[in-house]
Amino acid sequence: MSTPELLYSEAEDDLRAAVRSLLTDRCPPSAVLAQAESGRPHDPTLWRALGAEMGTAGLLVPDKLGGQGATAREAAVVMEELGRAVAPVPYLTSAVLAVAALLGCDTDEEAVARLLGALAAGRTVGALAVPLSTAPDGTAPTATVRAGSDGSLDGRTTGVAGTAGAEVLLVPADGPDGYGLYAVNTAEPGVTVEPLTSLDLTRPLATVTLSGAPARRLAGPDRAGAAVGRALLTGAGLLASEQLGVAEWCLTEAVRHTKERHQFGRPIGSFQALKHRMAALWLELVSARAAARHAADALATDSPDTPVAVAVAQSYCAQVAVHAAEECVQLHGGIGMTWEHPAHLYLKRAKTDEIALGTPGRHRQALAGLMDLAAPTG
User: Which own/partner pairs from 311-315 qualify as long-range (CB within 8 Å, at least 24 positions apart)?
Assistant: First the structure.
C-alpha cells in the first residue's frame, strides 16, 4: 500500500496562485455580498473566467474527452480557494458531482462523451439531481423519479444544489429496465426548477419537478448506481477541501482583526485568552488539512482506502469549518454580526457544508462500519 502524499506539488501551488489571483480580482467579499442579493444562482462572468478560460471545469475530465486530464488533487486545490472566497460558482455541482457521475458511465458512448466535453469546456453547466444532503454510503440513492417506457421522466426531487442556472440535469430514475441515469435539458417542457429559501445564498437549493420531461438514458442498471455513488463519494471528499478553505480564511481574518483592534491601549490579540482560542483553532486547521489532503490523494490514486479517507475527512473538516466561522464572528465582536461584514457568508457556507453530502455523524457511522467497530452496548 502506497503512502499518501499530503504535500502540494509545484503544479498544484501554481494552480492555487492562479485561482487565488482570479478570485482576489473578480470575487472580493463586496462582490459576493452583491451576488447574494442579486437573486441570480451564480456569477456567470466569474464562472466563465474560472471554468472555461482557466480550464478548471475540466480538471477531472481526461484530455481525450476535452478536459485537462488532472486528478482530484488539483480539483481539491481549486475547492480550497473557492472556500476561501465563498465564491458563487457551480464548481462542486457541475465540475465535480455532474462530471464524476458521467465518468462512471460508458464514456465511449457519443452522448456521454459529448456532454462531458461540454461540461469540461465550461460551455454547459450541469447538476446531479439528488438532494445535497445525500451521503455516499456505498449504495445508489433511492430514486424519486420514474422513467416511462417512452423515456420521459416524472417525479420530484427537493433540496438539490446547482439546478438553478444549470442547462443539463443528471437524474437517477427507476424505469421499466431498472435503475438508470438520465440527462434532461432544463429548457425542455415538463421541467420545473423552483428555488428554495437557502441558508447559503452563494449555493442555492431548489426543487426539481419533472412532468413527462423528455430525457436520454446515459447508463442502465449495470452502471448507474455505481456512477452516482462514486460521484457522491468524490463530492464528499473534495468538499472537505472547501471546508478547509473556509476555515483558513476565518482564522486568517480573525488574526488580522485582533492585531488591529485595540482595547485598553493594546491589540486585543495580545490577550492570553484570545491567543489560546486562535492557537487551538490553528491546531484544528492543521489536522483538517491533513485529513482533506488524504481524501484528495486517495481519490486521485483510486486507493482502496478512499471510503475511509473520505469519511474521516468529512467527519472532521465539517466541524472545524463551523468552529472557525463561529470564532471568526465572535472575535470580530459587534461588526462580525452585521450583514456588511462577510463573516456571516462563511458561517452560512460552513453550516450548509456540514450537512451537505452527509453530516459528520453520518460519516462517523459509516467509518465505524468500514472499520468494523461495533456500537457500545451498555
Answer: 311/363, 311/364, 311/366, 311/367, 311/370, 312/363, 312/367, 313/236, 313/237, 313/240, 314/236, 314/237, 314/239, 314/240, 314/357, 314/358, 314/360, 314/363, 315/360, 315/361, 315/363, 315/364, 315/367
CB atoms within 10 A of CB 377: 4
Banded pLDDT at 5 (limits 50, 70, 90) = confident
Name the β-bridge partners of 178.
175
Per-residue pLDDT, 1: 54
Could you tell me what percent of the chain has a pLDDT over 90? Answer: 73
pLDDT at 271: 67
350 neighbors 281 (Cβ within 8 angstroms): no
Identify the band that residue 24 occupies on the pLDDT scale cut at 50, 70 and 90.
very high
CA–CA distance, 307 with 138 (Å, rounded to integer): 8
> Please, are residues 120 and 63 in contact by the beta-carbon 8 Å criterion?
no
- Sorting pLDDT into bands at 50, 70 and 90, what band is 301? very high
C-alpha count within 13 angstroms, C-beta hemisphere, residue 83? 33
Within 10 angstroms of residue 5's Cβ, the number of other Cβ atoms is: 14
pLDDT in tens, 81-112: 999 999 999 999 999 999 999 999 999 999 99
Secondary structure (DSSP) of 107-156: TTSHHHHHHHHHHHTTSS-EEE-S-TT----SSPPPP-EEE-TTS-EEEE
Q: Which residues are CB-contacts of 150 (< 8 A; sequence separation ≥ 6)?
A: none
DSSP string covering 45-90, please?
HHHIIIIIIS-GGGTTS-GGGTS----HHHHHHHHHHHHHHT--S-
Average pLDDT estimate for 16-22 = 96
**One-letter amino acid of 348:** K
Residue identified by cell 441558508 is 199
| Maximum Cα–Cα distance across the chain | 76
Residue pair 154/175 in contact (Cβ under 8 Å)? The answer is no
Band of the pLDDT at 297, cuts 50, 70, 90? very high
How far is C-alpha 43 from the geometric centre of its chain's CA atoms?
Answer: 16
